[in-house]
Design a protein that fits this description.
Largest sheet: 6 strands, mixed
Number of helices: 16
Distance between the termini: 44 Å
Strand order of the largest sheet: 1-8-7-9-6-10
Structural class: alpha/beta
Number of strands: 12
Radius of gyration: 19 Å
Oligomer: single chain
C-alpha cells in the first residue's frame, strides 16, 4: 500500500479480519427484523427467481433500512438473497474482483479504482446511496490543532481505499502537507481502540465511528463537505456486476424501486427510519437522526437524470481518477467515455417510472 501513495508516508497497522456475515448480525438491543415478516410497499414481483449476493456496509443510508425491514424479500418473495457485510470499499472491490458479489455498497473513490487500470473490472455504478457531507470528517485529539497545518508529523488513521482516505489526501494536498503526515491504515471498528491507546493523533472516518471519537473528546477539524466544495466530492454508491445486470434486469429494477422507497422514508420520516438504521448500526435511534443530516439522499428520478447516472456522474468519476493517479492510487486514467460507460441509469429510471 505504501507504493500506492506516492509522496505519502503510509504505515500499515494490523487489522481485524474482515469477514462477510450474513443478514441478522446486529449489535443493538432491538431484534433484527431482517428475518421477520414484512410487507412490500408496492406490488410484489413473484416472477423473479434470481439468486443474489448483496454487500452492505455500516453506513446510515437507505440500504440499511431495506435490509432491516426485509423489504427485498417481501417484494421479491421467490428470489434467493444473501446479505454480506464489508468493512470498507476496498474489501468490496476485492469481492467483485473475486466474482463473489453481485451488488455492493462502496464509496466513489474505490468504485473509481474498480473501473480504472489495472483492475478494469466489468462493473457499473447503478445507484447513488448518498452524497457525502459532514458525515465523513477529520477528528483530532489535540484541541490546540485548529488548522490542517497542525497535522504535520502527526499520525492520522483512515481506511485506505475509502472515500475518507480520498478526502484526507485531497485536504493534505491542498494544505501542502503531502508526505508530511503519517497515514495509518485502519478499518473503522479498529480506530476507537487506537484512539484510546494513543496510537493515533487524528482520524478521517464516517459514522458511527465518527460520533464515537467526538464523544471521546475529539474535535472536528474539517469534513468531506469542505473537500467537496474545493472540488473533490465523494459519494456512497452501489456497484453491480455487468454480467449480473444483463441476466437479472427485473431484479435490478425492483431493487432500485425498494431503495427509492427507503430514500423517501429517510427524507420524510427520519425518526422512524432511524429505528431501523439504529438496529443495523448497533446504536440508539436518537443517535442516528443527527447523522442523517451529514448526507444528501437522492430520489431515483433525480439519480436517473443528466446530473448523475444519466451522464454527469461519469465526470465525477473521471475527476476522482485524475486525483487518484496523482497520488499513485491507480495505474492510469481511462477515457471520459470509459467512466461514463461505468455508470447505468437503467435501474434508477425503471424505479422512477
Amino acid at each position: 500500500m505504501k507504493s500506492a501513495l506516492r509522496g505519502v508516508v503510509a504505515t500499515s497497522v494490523a487489522l481485524s479480519a474482515v469477514v462477510a456475515v450474513t443478514a441478522g448480525c446486529v449489535e443493538s438491543g432491538r431484534a433484527d427484523t431482517s428475518s421477520a415478516a414484512a410487507s412490500c410497499p408496492f406490488a410484489a414481483d413473484t416472477g423473479v427467481t434470481s439468486t443474489v449476493r448483496l454487500g452492505f456496509q455500516a453506513i446510515p443510508n437507505a440500504d440499511l433500512l431495506v435490509k432491516d425491514r426485509n423489504l427485498l424479500q417481501a417484494c421479491l418473495p421467490n428470489a434467493k438473497i444473501t446479505w454480506s457485510q464489508f468493512a470498507s470499499g476496498a474489501d468490496v472491490v476485492q469481492a467483485f474482483g473475486a466474482g463473489s458479489l453481485d451488488i455492493g455498497t462502496l464509496g466513489s473513490s474505490p468504485a473509481t479504482k474498480a473501473l480504472s487500470a489495472p483492475l478494469n473490472l466489468p462493473v457499473q455504478v447503478v445507484w447513488i446511496h448518498d452524497v457525502i457531507g459532514t458525515s465523513e470528517s477529520l477528528v483530532v485529539k489535540d484541541k490546540s490543532i485548529t488548522a490542517p497545518a497542525g497535522l504535520r508529523g502527526k499520525k492520522v488513521a483512515t481506511p485506505f481505499g475509502s472515500t475518507s482516505h480520498y478526502s484526507l489526501l485531497a485536504a493534505l494536498d491542498k494544505a501542502g502537507l503531502t508526505g508530511q503526515v503519517e497515514l495509518i491504515n485502519l478499518q473503522p471498528d479498529a480506530i476507537p481502540g487506537a484512539w484510546q491507546g494513543n496510537q493515533i493523533d487524528a482520524a478521517w472516518v464516517w459514522d458511527p465511528t465518527l460520533s464515537k471519537l467526538t464523544a471521546a473528546g475529539g474535535t472536528v477539524l474539517t469534513s468531506s463537505a469542505e473537500t467537496a466544495a474545493a472540488g473533490a466530492p465523494t459519494y456512497d454508491v452501489a456497484l453491480a456486476s455487468r454480467a449480473f445486470l444483463a441476466d437479472n434486469a427485473a431484479f435490478a429494477k425492483t431493487w432500485a424501486k425498494v431503495q427509492d422507497y427507503a430514500v423517501g422514508q429517510l427524507r420524510t420520516q427520519p425518526a422512524e427510519a432511524a429505528v431501523s438504521l439504529g438496529a443495523q448500526l448497533g446504536i440508539a435511534p436518537d443517535q442516528v437522526v443527527p447523522q442523517l443530516a451529514g448526507y444528501q439522499y437522492l430520489p431515483a428520478a433525480e439519480q436517473a437524470g443528466p446530473r448523475y447516472l444519466g451522464g454527469g456522474f461519469g465526470d465525477d468519476l473521471t475527476g476522482t481518477a485524475r486525483f487518484l493517479l496523482s497520488q499513485g492510487g491507480i495505474a492510469a486514467v481511462g477515457s471520459e467515455q470509459q467512466y461514463r460507460d461505468g455508470i447505468s441509469a437503467t435501474a434508477a429510471a425503471g424505479a422512477s417510472s
